[in-house]
């Protein structure tokens, strides 16, 4: 039996239930801005080896919780674990990001792709989830995650990061049926992967669509949102007697939040390029919203950080359904005490937005 959850603010906020304050966590909260993370990564030998070692992945997942009053842990892993298990030759070059030795660009390449077994090739991720849940002892919920099929497919086809997306957009416009075949395989693998994480103990899951904003509105609906819809439909939505919230996040997707909300997900991540008040109007309070402080605010002095946190909270306004976060991952150069200033400001400034307004009495 897992320990009872002592702090369920995140899960309640994701389901738009009342909370006494706005819960807060950070994308990439276990990462290079923390000296303790850098020490553990050095011990692991490489980023990939760190991801594949359940005990060390647990260690870095918990590091920010030992330092800050955060309301969630997020599994330390990477969105490219699924293609890694598909044998495309993933490696991480220091300072250059991911490289894929065998890019997927032909029909024969797609034919060769297996759908990995979460408890087989991806067992190390499931073991990390189990280890983290055990070591959390119910302090806060654990978020599992995966990359969106479009974003994962982009890396697989391009062979790494890309500015112009020449190979995958060439496939999108020149051989769309082949791209749909690839995205279908990734989607089926991702549903199995997220369900494996939930079975292992993840209490919420998030789908990161980093490159969805590179698409036209029509192509976004056909090649990204369509497959995230299938994930929303296919993941386990209840475990341990509680709903498992699903969060979708498309960087650069502010114009499409209403379409994203219509998938049936529970919450949407919002980047800093969309005002939360506009986002809330767009989704008509059908889903919770997560975000959306510009990560670069954390370069500023603590007093300025507090001021900007106040503006984000005011932008969302009164009532439930807001999870405070950055609009994207925390930058490696940020000083840990600046992250602390943000978190403390959320604790201090957010309760006023959650007071019950007892109008008409007294």
Secondary structure: elements and pairs:
Blueprint: H1 9-14, H2 35-44, H3 47-51, H4 54-67, E1 73-74, H5 81-85, E2 90-93, E3 97-100, H6 107-111, H7 123-136, E4 142-147, H8 149-158, H9 166-174, H10 176-200, E5 204-209, H11 217-234, E6 238-239, E7 242-243, E8 246-250, H12 257-261, E9 267-269, H13 276-283, E10 288-293, H14 302-316, E11 322-326, H15 336-349
Parallel strand pairs: 1-4, 4-5, 5-8, 8-9, 9-10, 10-11
Antiparallel strand pairs: 2-3, 6-7
Helix pairs in contact: 2-4, 4-7, 8-10, 9-10, 10-11, 14-15
Structural features, described:
By secondary structure, this protein is of the alpha/beta class. The chain has a single domain, classed as TIM Barrel, CATH 3.20.20. It is 45% helix and 12% strand. The protein has helices at residues 9-14, 35-44, 47-51, 54-67, 81-85, 107-111, 123-136, 149-158, 166-174, 176-200, 217-234, 257-261, 276-283, 302-316, 336-349, and strands spanning 73-74, 90-93, 97-100, 142-147, 204-209, 238-239, 242-243, 246-250, 267-269, 288-293, 322-326. Helix 12 links the parallel strand 8 (246-250) and strand 9 (267-269). Helix 4 packs parallel to helix 7 (123-136). 50% of the residues are buried.
């Amino acid at each position: 039996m897992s320990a009872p959850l002592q702090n369920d603010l995140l899960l309640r906020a994701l389901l738009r239930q009342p909370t006494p304050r706005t819960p807060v966590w950070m994308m990439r909260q276990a990462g290079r801005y923390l000296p303790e993370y850098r020490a553990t990564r050095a011990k692991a030998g490489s980023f990939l080896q760190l991801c594949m070692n359940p005990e060390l992945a647990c260690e870095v997942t918990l590091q920010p919780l030992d330092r800050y009053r955060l309301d969630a842990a997020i599994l330390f892993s990477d969105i490219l674990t699924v293609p890694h298990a598909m044998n495309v030759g993933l490696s991480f070059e220091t300072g250059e990001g991911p490289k894929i030795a065998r890019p997927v660009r032909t029909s024969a390449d797609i034919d060769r792709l297996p759908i990995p077994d979460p408890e087989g090739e991806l067992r190390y991720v499931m073991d990390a989830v189990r280890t983290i849940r055990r070591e959390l002892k119910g302090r806060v919920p654990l978020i599992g995650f995966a990359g969106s099929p479009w974003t994962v497919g982009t890396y697989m086809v391009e062979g790494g990061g890309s500015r112009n997306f020449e190979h995958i957009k060439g496939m999108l416009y020149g051989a769309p049926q082949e791209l749909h075949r690839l995205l279908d395989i990734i989607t089926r693998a991702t549903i199995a992967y997220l369900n494996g994480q939930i079975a292992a103990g993840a209490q919420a899951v998030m789908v990161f669509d980093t490159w969805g904003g590179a698409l036209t509105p029509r192509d976004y609906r056909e090649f990204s949102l369509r497959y995230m819809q299938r994930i929303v439909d296919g993941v386990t939505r209840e475990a341990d007697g509680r709903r498992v919230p699903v969060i979708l996040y498309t960087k650069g997707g502010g114009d499409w939040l209403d379409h994203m909300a219509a998938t049936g997900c529970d919450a949407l991540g919002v980047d800093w390029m969309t005002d939360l008040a506009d986002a809330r109007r767009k989704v008509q309070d059908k889903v919770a919203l997560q975000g959306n402080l510009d990560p670069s605010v954390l370069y500023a002095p603590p007093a300025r950080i507090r001021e900007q946190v106040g503006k984000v909270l005011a932008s969302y306004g009164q009532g439930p359904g807001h999870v405070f976060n950055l609009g994207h991952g925390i930058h490696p150069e940020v000083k840990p005490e600046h992250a602390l200033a943000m978190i403390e400001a959320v604790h201090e400034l957010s309760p006023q937005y959650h007071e019950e307004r007892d109008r008409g009495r007294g």
